[in-house]
Amino acid sequence: MTMTAASSIADPAASATAYRLTGVTRTYRQRERTVTALAGIDLEIAAGDFVTIQGPTGGGKSTLLQMLGALDRPTSGSVRLGDLDLARASNLDLGRVRAAEIGFVFQGFNLIPTLTAAENVHMGLEPLGLDRDERRRRVTEALDRVGLADRHDHRPGELSGGQQQRVAIARAVAKHPRVLLADEPTGNLDEHMRDEILDVLDALNREGLTLVVVTHDSAVARRARRRLRLAKGTISDITRA
Ligand code: ADP
Ligand code: MG
Fold it and tell me: Where is the ABC transporter domain (predicted)?
């Protein structure tokens, strides 16, 4: 992503909103009980921000991330990503958004063990219908960005946990997504590897990528520009708490 000098003055993109959530609720029916996972969320996330979401288990973090990721729809309310309301979009549009606009990173890496790092990254590009040269270029660029230029041909089992998570990040950013969503991306990593991932996330954010990271780890949250807390389905801003 490049920005011209002129665009930094009055470009609306400079202060654009990535997400605008209004009155988002999500309830689940469990036998005769109704569980409220999200109890009415109003939230704006600015393009280019680095947001973390903390909070107790069961507080609704994964549910919220699924809304942001076009993986689930709210019971009520709207979830705008750019011009599209994910709550009302067709399944086809949601599929397109997931494939092209949203990068996902999970605690367990979710790499395919029989494929090399490059092949794993390549997989993430398949739905985009890019030509062969462009795909190759993107795979190389993405592995470079996460510092794995020399690990293209390694399989996950031949990589450290931190390196595996960097492959997963490369797979997510190769599509040039609008946002990167991560659910406990450092949850399976020791401190050293955690810092390695934090440095990669920091660098991607400085390049302009919007990050939303669910985490239990306050070392991760300290890197964020904006810290949110989600408990009992209700969100609060704890950036300066
Ligand atoms: P967190 O990620 O913060 O631990 P979740 O979003 O996973 O929280 O869960 C929020 C609440 O919604 C919890 O009470 C959980 O049990 C409930 N919940 C989440 N997913 C489902 C589901 N598929 N069916 C029923 N209840 C669910
Ligand atoms: Mg969770």
Answer: 19-241
